[in-house]
């Protein structure tokens, strides 16, 4: 009997399939899936067994109907026929098997020597349209953002693509060997990783006026109310670089910042003071001076007074201008 599958059906266990598609599995796929999906749409990208199981579970959650036996056959069919494509032999120690699936767990490890060799291939076949760093041009797409490149592992997807030729290519497909394709894969992934590193690199924050920063520190910002360049901030620029200085004064409650304390007074009994752990509309918890965990239910009769040493910093976030921030960093950097 066919069943309408609800959340419980997400627990359909993967069936351990064999290398060949079991009898009746393709028929099960066509009966359950072909009503909404063309075969080419479903199988456009090869996946591991676990990934196909995730896809099936997703379809079940969206209302796909079938029996547990049918879903098991479909999983076996997709795994056997549309599992990850075999790739060329991996360099020793890379942990590569006979197949690769895209994802963070199988990040391609760059071989610098192969990337150098691949750059010669790239220069001969790709650079004219895709640019020096594979970021594209008016004649070609940005390969750093290409799904074919991002899903590739050691030539697994760019190899078949290059052998077929580009969709807009007017000359014959490049006649590259498996070794050249794998070298080219290292070059392209190297460009991807270099682009990511550049995007995450902290930029220069020392662009302000130290004199203006000192004036703000001692004047409008009222920083000198709590801090002293010869006291708690003495030699701070020797202990922190400019990005860390900026992060610390903008968000002082982070790691290593001042802790909030709280005093809780009940209708009867002495007040309890300690380091604030959690507070919301219903409960407040703290750890007292003896290290004991204390939790209180918030009621109209419970008085809660929070002490946040960084409260002024929080208020300044609404008043800082970009110039104020950069000027303060420039001033703090002088406190060697």
- The chain-level structural class is alpha+beta
Quaternary structure of the protein: single chain
User: CATH H-level name of the largest domain... which superfamily?
Assistant: Cytochrome c-like domain
**Measured on Cα atoms, how large is the radius of gyration?**
31 Å
Q: Determine the strand fraction and express it as a percent band.
A: 5-15%
Give the SSE order as H and E letters: HHHHHHHHHHHHEEEEEHH
Biggest β-sheet description: 5 strands, antiparallel
Structure characterization notes:
There is one protein chain. The protein is α+β, with helices and mostly antiparallel strands and 336 residues long. It folds into four domains: 7-82, no CATH class; 104-200, Orthogonal Bundle (Cytochrome Bc1 Complex, Chain D, domain 2); 210-256 and 312-332; 261-308. It contains 14 helices and five strands. It has helices spanning 25-32, 39-42, 49-61, 68-82, 112-125, 127-130, 147-151, 158-164, 178-200, 210-218, 236-239, 242-250, 311-316, 322-332, and strands spanning 261-265, 272-279, 283-288, 293-297, 303-307. The protein has a five-stranded antiparallel beta sheet, with no helix packed on it. Helix 10 (210-218) crosses helix 14.
Task: Furnish the topology, listing elements before pairings.
Blueprint: H1 25-32, H2 39-42, H3 49-61, H4 68-82, H5 112-125, H6 127-130, H7 147-151, H8 158-164, H9 178-200, H10 210-218, H11 236-239, H12 242-250, E1 261-265, E2 272-279, E3 283-288, E4 293-297, E5 303-307, H13 311-316, H14 322-332
Antiparallel strand pairs: 1-2, 1-5, 2-3, 3-4
Helix pairs in contact: 1-4, 3-4, 5-9, 10-14, 12-14
